[in-house]
Amino acid sequence: MGAAEITALLGPAAAADALADALRAGLDPEACPQRSAVAVPGGGELLLMPAAQGAYAGVKIAGVAPGNPARGLPRITGSYLLLDGPTLSPVALLDGAALTALRTPAVSALALRHLAPAGRPLRLVLFGTGPQAYGHLEAAAAVRELAEAVVVGRDPGGPGAKALAEHARTLGVPARTGSAADVAGADLVLCCTTARTPLFDGRLVAPGAVVVAVGSHEPDARETDTALVRRSAVYVEARSAALREAGDLLVPEAEGAIGPGCITATLADLVAGRAPGPGPAGCPQLFKSVGMAWEDLAVAVALYAAAGKNSET
């Protein structure tokens, strides 16, 4: 299943539904197998992400090649093999990069459904200009009405930021390029970058604003600063994964600014209603995602089902 077919079969809202359905069916993210990472000579990284749930199993083999954009190639590569659970027979092979480009915004969309205020248009500040930034813009627009999108790129006035702002306008969202200071007026802040150090001053984020950070699964890299984490109600996909991989939390913990108990709730808690969102109105809401194998499996199964229905019509 190629990238074009994946894009045509499922949007971020439907993929978020698949994630919520998996959690409601009893999937426990805390029991999800850890990501395996292998360093590759030349500066890249090979990731293996297996999972099994219900009638299916699957594994994503992904490559992270930081030097690829300079070569005109995608930074993320890979494939996803979906297996029938009882027999472990392969049933589908999916483009791994396209699956990731759908799955990650879908996870964020599911969090936004529970954390972002509803009933009024929201002001969005979006950091990043790559595939995840495009996916997150579309995901946010699918689950909340957006009053404005402000795109902040590495080069604030560069062609990447301008192109994404223009794409937002094609979705009916007023948009412009901006700078990190724009977070002061944001209702939503989406961080979709390869940054290894904080993108903005967390003291500027308004109480009640929602910040989503998805850019890193490395314990020494982060997009948000210690000031924001200390101020925020913190939500994660799974405590075990976050306390193993989320630099946005692990760096402040290493500084002694927070402890492991800083996590308010998980995505499963939100979906099950154990921690109804939005959280406390007097502080920002921070959702930190590292990406997990169960999410790939849930979205891959939904894509496989959608492809089957599509072939019958």
From TrEMBL:
Gene3D superfamilies tied to this protein: NAD(P)-binding Rossmann-like Domain, ornithine cyclodeaminase, domain 1
Taxonomy, superkingdom: Bacteria
Organism: Streptomyces globosus
Coiled coil: none
Name of this protein: Ornithine cyclodeaminase family protein
InterPro entries: NAD(P)-bd_dom_sf, ODC_Mu_crystall, ODC_N
Any one GO CC term of the record: cytoplasm
